[in-house]
Known about the structure:
By secondary structure, this protein is an alpha+beta fold. The protein is 22% helix and 33% strand. It has five helices and twelve strands. A four-stranded antiparallel sheet has the order 1-9-8-2. The protein is globular, with a radius of gyration of 20 Å.
Amino acid sequence: MAEKKRKHFSDINPAFYSIAVKKEIARRHLKDAFSREKFSKTIEKEPFPNLVASYSCHLIKRGPGIDLRLQENKAVNINLACAKLNGSIVHPGESFSFWRTVGSTTKRKGYMEGREIFGNQVRPGIGGGLCNLGNTVHLLVLHSPLDVTEIHNHSDALSPDEGERIPYATGTSVSYNNVDFRFKNNTNQDVQLLLWCDEDNLYGELRSREPFPYRYELVEEDHHFKKEDGIFYRNSKIYRKVIDNATGEVVKKELVLDNHSEVMFDYDLIPKELIRE
Length: 277
């Protein structure tokens, strides 16, 4: 007989889940308070001269099965968070924390119900949609010599791809404040994050004062969808190539994600040519 899976209190009652989350938030506050880690606090809006990486994406996705109200609210939430993040300077030896910079997401601050991931379900939640912003920051960092020190992943198949497939276009999870995205600047110069929106798009840039000796590219291999026990998954391996700027030589290729993401959208929208038996 198969062993019965033990249920946590948070699985039994939503109130218990709320208590568990508050406990984890308090634990993170305490851990940071007693940590010797130095977090970035400086904001400077004037752009640094050297562009390390840039990325942009649509704020509002439209299509079958997509709740437009939650998408529009997501855009509001991202605008609010961008106002906190834009111009963040991370000095050598400092760490960047998404949530220490953005702060809590509450109705009082203007945050609205956006799309969030709970377990294997998509549902409304105050401040929902900021994973989109967290993932933008993550993509910028992956195209730089900065070191990711904390990351949490969710499904990389929340909705059909828009246009050409971009490796790691989604999948970074953030939830105040125990599910954070953090990186450390172990280089010898300051870096700067610039994040802003217009009506349709989110834009991000990572800048430095001087060029770095290497550039970075993401490549995806063996991308396909496969059904397992009646559930479709997106599968692929995503690598990061480190390229010497002076010679153009690839000096390193490292695996950053062994992707096995449950498909969260209508299976009829999966490209048939990418389905593997």
